[in-house]
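#structure-requests
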Amino acid sequence: MPGFPIIDTHVHLTDIDRLGYEGLRAEAPALYKSFDLQRFHEASSAVDLEAFLFMEVCVDTPYRAREAGWVTELAAEDSRLQGMIVSAAIESGTAVESELEAYAANPLVKGVRRLLQSEADDFGARSGFIEGLRCLPKHQLSFDICIAERQLPAVIEMVRACPDVSFMLDHVAKPRIKEGEIEPWRSHIVTLAEMPNVVCKVSGMVTEADHESWTRDDLRPYFDHIFETFGFDRVAFGGDWFVSELATTYPEWIATVDWATEGCSDDERRKLYCENARAFYRLESGGRS
């Protein structure tokens, strides 16, 4: 484990009795259950957590605002829950403004994610989506990109069209680790990393590997490429709990990231595990700067 407290930028929590998750029920029935703070506390008890951020769980559209309210209540129970990334209808273009204005009234809301991985490959590059993304900076909100690896060309186009938007690339763009394929992911990552408004979240890699038999060496080429292309000034740690439990435990994932960063300086590891997250999601003052 790191010798200092860490910030986890990617923690999922659910309450199936209070909120609707039909997409989760359909796509990942094994995860269709409530994962509450108590379960997260148990999973992370061996980890020194300075802070963590809630990541939206593709809640049904009518429950989006209610999810944000629920997470706000949870933050009152655990002061380490210092922010959330919520879901919004970015594809509605400038019509998303009213939704963003409502979110912006809550200082815990740090960013938005509209899940792209299940959409058409060009969904994020369509004109309406671009218009919606361009509304984010005025509300001081970032955008988390969650895609399948095949969608990287469209995402590169999307990011180029939005130079003023701060982007976080989730799960290193979900390369095909299970198949041992690194191209064209590697080449696309080089292109994306050239854009200074993108930070890469080191998360979700084990669930792209073989859930039952993955090894650290399976992940090594992907770790190395991300650290080489983005550098330690533009990477952030994410645990991806509870989805990560399909393939690993919370402490084991952190131990794997530790292994991947052996030989790195203490300064580099602090950037990965906490400092970059604090800066990107504006956690220094507990609100928007």
